[in-house]
Amino acid sequence: MKDNYDINNYTYDMDRCIGCKGCVWVDHVYMPGVRYGVKCPSNAYKLFDGYAPMGREKIGKALLEGRIDYTPEYLDVMYMCQLCGACDAGCKRNLDLEPLSVLESLRVKAVKDGKGPMPAHKKVAQNIAEKGNRYGAAEKRSGWITKDTKISDKADMVYFPGCSASYVEKGIAQATGKILNKAGINFMTLGDKDTCCGHPVATSGMLDEAKAIARKNIDILKATGATTLVTSCAECYNTWKVIYPKMLSKNFADMGYQVIHLVEVVSKLVNEGKFTFSKPMNIRAAYHDPCRMARQGEPWVEWEGTRGQWGILTPKKEYRRGTFGVYQQPRDILNKIQGLDLVEMPRMKENAFCCGAGGGVMDAYPDFAMWAATERLTEVQSVAAEAVISACPYCKKVFNEASKANNMNIKAYDITEIILACM
Amino acid sequence: MSIKNKLTDLLGNRVSDAPAALDAYRTDYSLASPGTPLCVAYPNDSKEIMAIVALANETNTPVVPVSSRVHFTGAAIPKQGGVIVDMKNMNKIWNLDERNRKITVEPGVTWNQLYPVLAEKNLMVCPPMLPHGEQSVITTFLERSPLVIPLYEYAEPLLSMEVVWPNGTLFRTGSASAPTFPNSFAEGVNPEGPGTMDFYRLLQGAQGTMGIVTWAIIKTEYLSPMNKFFFFSFNNIEDAIKPTYSFLRRKIGYDCFIMNRLDLALICAEEYPNEFDVMMKKLPEWMIVLALRASRRRPEEKIQYETNAINDICRKFNGMQYLNSLPGSGHAAIRLTEILRQPWTDKGPYWKHRLTGNCQDLMFITKMSMVPEFVSMMTKAAVAESFPVANIGTYIQPIEGGRACHVEFNMYYDPKCDNDKAKVLRLHDRAAKAMLPHGAQFTRPYGSLSDMVYERAASYTATLKRVKKIFDENNIMNPGNLCF
Amino acid sequence: MGIPQEAYKAMEDIVGSQYITDDQVIAQAYVGRLGHGKDTGIDLEMNVPPAVIVLPRTTKEVQGILKIAHRYKINYVPASSFWISHCAPKRPNSIVLDLKRMNDLEIDEENMCAICGPGVIFSQLQEEAIKRGMYTTTPGGGSQVSVVANHINWGLSPLNYRNGVPGRRVLGGEWVLPDGELLRIGSMSTSDDPFWGEGPGPDLRGLLRGWIGWFGAMGVVTKLAVKLLPFHDEGLKPVGISPHTTLQFPEKKRIRWYNFVMPTRESLVECMYDIGKAEIAAALTKVPQQWRYIAKAGCREDFWEGWNTNEARKSINNIHICRVMLVGYASEEQLEYEERVLMDIMDSYGAKLGRTRQSDNSWIKNADSATMWMMTGAYTSVQVTVDTVDCGVKGGEGLAREKPAFTPPLMDDYGEPGWFQVSEIGHMGYIEFLQYWDPNPNQENLYKKDEWNYIKVPTLDAEWGMFNAFNMYASPMNLTGKAYGPECRKWFEKVKAEFDPDKISNDPIPWDVDEYVDKVDWVNKEDYINRDWSKG
């Protein structure tokens, strides 16, 4: 069985990078100008090419070929990256190489070689192992549930709130419950078996631990009999839809469950006229596409085969290019809300600039995460918006922290909160 | 053995040091001081030029290349004596290539000579404003005379050239540098290179200091089967600028320039001075001249869409009016149609010499938006020098779609009057000094301008001198000009 | 080894510690293996990691760095987008000047020029230009290349049709000479405004670049004004999600593409001449067959399914596509007029107008240069001549006849005679001859792709009299530098000796091929060094 995280499966991708920096620049068709022209947060923050995906690939190759060894700078190069996947969509615009898989696999190799992950990642992994959540919180995971939230004992749909909405951004989980209730959709939770999806463990390269979490979670879901898992978190969404099957070398289609984000549920109802908004919201807001639901939101498609002359793959590979991510659904919802003036930022959809929190960066490099969030908020300001709306609790949190730290007076909302407020 | 004798060994009787022969090179129409050459040589080909240059290097003798039969700038006056290399015998025209729209000429070919050759085939070389018929075509372009057609982005008509470098070696620039040229696939229409240097640019504006061009391939264009002139009147130059930008931004028309009343009357009056006098009374202070010229296919339709576009622009300028003929001259449009495609062919003096007998130009490159400021500075300088403002002609030639423009102040004076000459020289220098810090680009620093400009262009001057030293180790090529 | 500690410290003081590094992990990101020239012999054999990478912000900082390099005799390599293997260090202990921080961009809308730092790329400039009803010509090198670097080096594009080659679009600017001294060119020689390219007297732009540039072997251009060109004012709307993003043309008839199928190659050439002579159109190009198959393919495997067919093989001689863009600069009426003229011309040749999408995703703002590597993983252009259209056609057909002897390792393109297009409204034509190969080193005779690139094509160029810009960089200077001019190499040597006597500015460019072929066993240098090239 092919190991999708074995760096040796990606030497062609590393070697055939031609340095067009499609991984760094916003798609040229959408290029907004000098300001906001870069979509790779790490290369915008650390300007040396070593911090661009194309540079990381060359550095990774040098490591594999024994020209360099692990050093603190090497680990910074590999971990100072949100794994936001902007590079991946950019590269597949022209060349169909796999920079995101390369970056993930180089982290896995670092862990296997005993050099990774970063200390902060180990602490998070330990929290998950010991307490079932990334924060190491001792409280019950179900603390978000309010009395007026109707949760079924048995339903075809499981709501998986994730660590953030369970402990920190509880309002998102509460809003999700109420929205589902209003929509008349029965749902259940995993109850006391609810736990972390393992996203931080997987992205830090701790493959064995992440696989164990995946198998356990999949078994728990199966035991409920539910076939659909709904999330309000882009990271959880991506973990169930992409990382689990990728780690287990299976097509997502063969995983035996469906994964949807709340915005997919609501937008379908909104577009069918079955969900309406009764209250206006008078704000001018920009929508921020969360990386793992937008350009990384396509389901995992397993491929195994050989590469021949001219680099031809047999059999053909079905590429995940970010084309069919969750882009339009949140916009459809927000456009239906009276008074809400939805504006697009220069970097949007597959070219969106990551909030900065993902890929373990918030844990290991909080300054970088805050810088990225601040950079994104300047973009919100550039379109004269007073608020930014996302569909991931990590985005909301880091945006609000950055806004406060920089006195930017921009409010960050999760889309669930907006929907709830306007119902 | 004197240099003259050595040259005679090379060229036979095509060398002269007769005072009458030398006298022709001592002065020109400019205010530059006279300079006397040792002798004049009349080579027939590039091999002879190579030999002359080699000899000049051996004997440390200045070489002054001369191509035109008439001179206006002082650049061909020998500043340090030496040998005049007069290329009047090198006046061949060949390879008129209609398919690729080009022609090859030697430096002695004048506008009078070239024009009919091309016109016979309905072709032209993109022309400057009414060049003197005895001017060398190659020199006109090497010296960057602006073109009356600002439509083309690639304004420079010079393509590949052959040159004798100051060290006496022969070289071909551009795609004619291909080793087997002209028996090559390349036909010499690319001016750039070869390799990492644009040799042709080092020859441009060089006033003969960087080498002697022995032939050049020149781009040709089509003469238009149909023309329509538009004249826009303005009392203030400020008001003429924005409409000009608008026409050119939309690529409307071919010829386009602005002139003040004096210059326009001087070029448009067929009968001087009667018609000139009438026009001076009837013309407005400033005028944009815009010529629509049809292409060979569907000519009427082209003129029509451009006319409609002009009307559209006029509406945007609050109903700006235009005329299709000039006040005071019912046939000016017809006349301009013809004369803007030719050298000056009227009987009598050259247009710049019509009014008072001579003219001193002050010309530079600037942005069109800055023209009013420079016009005002010129007026102030004239008043300060008690020079009659009425005797200053102004010609503004937009370049390359209006990206920049050539500004030319024509100071008309009586060459026989020493007082006039002194006054015009003072005015020239005063105005130049005032304009230089305001961004006037004197890319052709003739005479007294050179010290002024090169003093300001410190790094450019230092680098130019290093480049000159590479090409002309002994500084034999037309010394005393520019910063050399 | 590295560079002297005091030199490093001095540079650190200039740019600040966060913008300089000698870390050898980071240095790996700057080892060649990128862009045009990747996987050729020089890329594989000569590129080495730099000792130091420095990111200056200002001209003054660049001057400081170059003066330190000059004092300590340290080789340096300036690079903006690293899209060409010439701008990668080939000497040990080099400094790389990564110029991406120098990304100031100022537009003079009224006077149609853009003042750019070397860190500004084409799509960024194009965005600003189109917003203002103007455009620049995004080159074949791609949207991601530096505007400054491309203008001073190369810059061909079908959009040059109306506007001439980019060497003619360089205006004023600041150029730090190899020893760190600042030269202000064009109108900046006497003022602070770079709007005009000519300086007083001889034009020193002639030293900056020729038919191609120095690729950093003559210092660093830190600021350059380039021409912007009139366009229509209706804008172009980006639509779609990657990889299917494109610029949609406005409904108003201000810009249109037309694809014509011509009956013969001869008619394709003749119609190009006629269109030029009619002084219509904004772009005019032939479409090579393999590009059509790339455009139709969803992935590399799709391409090969299409290309490995008799239909594709026959298409080289049977299908001749002429692609024309019209722009109504003045009005919709202009476009309508030009369309009527175009149809007159095309009807006279029996051309058929094919279905044409009214959008653009490959020339105006996004140029898919990276797609050239899609088919096989390796690509170079070996011929880039601008002269007449006839010259281009003859040269392309000649190379197509010679190429089979080098195929494999080159990809079989069935005798495709190259990509040609028209420039300067028909006064010039452009031929680009492309090759693709599989860079997998486990192949027999892979060296032949270098023999073709470095020796065979330049030899044919000189024999036939082509005017290949890449000659000075993709062939020994002892061959083409001797043949062209003649002896243009001697001038380059003299200029280099005067301005960079210690050869610290990106050595050994442009003599790298001479150095490379000295080390290989498949070149007989006597063949070209002793040859009298004037006889072909």
A few lines on this structure:
Chain A: InterPro entries: 4Fe4S_Fe-S-bd, Cys_rich_dom, HdrC_iron-sulfur_subunit. Chain A has 423 residues and is of the alpha/beta class. Helix content of chain A is 43%, strand content 8%.
Question: Would you write up a description of this structure?
Answer:
The complex is a heterotrimer of chains A (423), B (484) and C (536). By secondary structure, chain A is of the alpha/beta class. Chain A has a domain of 134 residues: 3-Layer(aba) Sandwich (Rossmann fold), CATH 3.40.50. Helices cover 43% and strands 8% of the residues of chain A. A four-stranded parallel β-sheet of chain A has the order 7-4-8-9, sandwiched between helices. Chain A has a three-stranded parallel β-sheet with strand order 1-2-3. In chain A, helix 9 packs across helix 18, helix 13 crosses helix 14 and helix 16 crosses helix 17. Chain B is an alpha+beta fold. Chain B folds into four domains: 84 residues, Uridine Diphospho-n-acetylenolpyruvylglucosamine Reductase, domain 2 (2-Layer Sandwich); 130 residues, Uridine Diphospho-n-acetylenolpyruvylglucosamine Reductase, domain 3 (2-Layer Sandwich); 113 residues, Alpha-Beta Plaits; 94 residues, Alpha-Beta Plaits. In chain B, 33% of the residues lie in helices and 19% in strands. Chain B is built from 15 helices and 17 strands. A six-stranded antiparallel β-sheet of chain B has the order 12-14-13-16-17-15, with helices on both faces. In chain B, helix 1 runs antiparallel to helix 3 and helix 12 runs antiparallel to helix 13. The radius of gyration of chain B is 23 Å and the shape is globular. The relative contact order of chain B is 0.12. Chain C is α+β, with helices and mostly antiparallel strands. Chain C has four domains: 97 residues, 2-Layer Sandwich (Uridine Diphospho-n-acetylenolpyruvylglucosamine Reductase, domain 2); 126 residues, Uridine Diphospho-n-acetylenolpyruvylglucosamine Reductase, domain 3 (2-Layer Sandwich), CATH 3.30.465.10; 221 residues, FAD-linked oxidases, C-terminal domain (Vanillyl-alcohol Oxidase, Chain A, domain 3), CATH 3.40.462; 60 residues, no CATH class. Chain C contains 19 helices and 21 strands. The model of chain C has no long low-confidence stretch (mean pLDDT 95). The chains are: A alpha/beta (423), B alpha+beta (484), C alpha+beta (536).
